[in-house]
Amino acid sequence: MRLLLSTLLFVLVLSSAIGAEGQRDPAYDYVVVPQTRIDARDLGYSPVDLIPNGESGITSLSVAPNGDVFGATSGIRSHLFMINPQHGYVVPLGVIPGAQAITQAVVISAAGTVFLGASPTGHLLEYVPRDLDNLQIEIGRPLTVVDHGTAIPGESIAALTIDRQRNVIYGLTKPNAHLFKFSLADNKFTDLGILARNRPPGEKFEHEKTMSRMLTVDTDGNVFASGEDAAIYRVAIATGALEKLAIHLPAIPGREPYTKVDAFLLDQSGMIYGGTSDGYLFRLDPVKLTIVNLGKPLNQYHIAGLASGSNGKLYGVGGDAPEMARMFSFDPSAGIYDLLGFVDVNRRPYYTWQAYVVGAIVSDQKGTVYLGENERISKLYLFYP
Predict the structure, then answer these.
(1) Which residue in 164, 137, 147 sits closest to 50, CA to CA?
(2) Residue 272 confidence class, pLDDT cut points 50, 70, 90
């Protein structure tokens, strides 16, 4: 009995010490997102029913017509998960067959069917959600999908977007920057053309062609992307042809060959907002085909994603992998930025957790912003504007 009591006392003391060590000073909360407005979720049910370390980096998020948020991870294997905003917990759905990465490539049809663009296989996969509220979690279980095959032979799928009104999916491939479409009506792929034919000049390790990390569709069904030399490309709904427009992304002088769109957001007004790899925010008018440079919200490269708040503001995260992710907001009506701080959750006395790298952002129908951490051990963050 004495040995048992001594052991329990040792564990309690050790736990208290670890908890105290893991907590930041309250003064630190003045430089992070206010703690009343941010929370974090494990990717599953702790401690055992979690998407494993090394497989949990969130690189895609998408909102279904019914409000459910679906996400996919990248790593040793790729997993699909879902969070119902009403319930508030993350449900792992299964391992995506043949995928190590799903990068900005989860889209959902008007009927609620989830489509996934796999890397490195390049297959387009279809998943039909059924009775998810009563799903028994089984980490490692293969996700049941319909495989529609490869869009472009030999190419991975790097990004997807969907035109729900016309039931057409558009995608972008790597390494050769093919833009394609997939018709849900006849299950047919069409190669629309190439966004980047040449690699930018530079060192031998700079071998990737310069192209968008995301695609977007405007309210009329026109598709936009960026390609080589910071040029904007469009697939016009009237012609179905890929065209290089006479407008370019804002860029640091001399870095045009390396500049690309990291994030797109279609605003309720019909305007398209975007963030570049240099960290600029811009506004694209899809009708007039003009671009306005809105400046740099942060003194950092790379805007990981953009989302709409219910208050009319835009929310985003900046910062590349070697840096610390920081949130910002932009008020289109006033043209004002607000620096919000680090993506950090500090649940005293339990734990503190900070996202250094964010891989995807989306907002649901109520304006809650979801931020997917992209690290070896990752969480899903919920921000309430």
Answers:
(1) 137
(2) very high
Evaluate the CA torsion angle 249, 255, 256, 261 in order and state its sign.
negative
Q: Hey, is 8 helix, strand or coil? A: helix
Those residues with Cβ within 8 angstroms of residue 193's Cβ, 6 or more apart along the chain or in another chain = 178, 179, 241, 242
CATH of domain 36-383: 2.130.10.10
**Is the Cβ–Cβ distance between 313 and 283 less than 8 Å?**
no
Calpha distance 223→157 (Å, rounded): 17
Facing residues of 73 across strands?
58
How far apart CA 160 and CA 105 sit, in angstroms, is 4
Residues 293/250, Cβ–Cβ less than 8 Å: yes
Share of the chain above pLDDT 70, in %: 91
CA distances from 41 to 47, 152, 353, 379 (A): 12, 36, 11, 6
Write down the residue that tokens 């390494």 correspond to.
175
DSSP states of 320-332: -TTS--EEEEEET
Q: Is 178 helix (H, G, I), strand (E, B) or coil?
A: strand
Q: Whole-model pTM?
A: 0.90
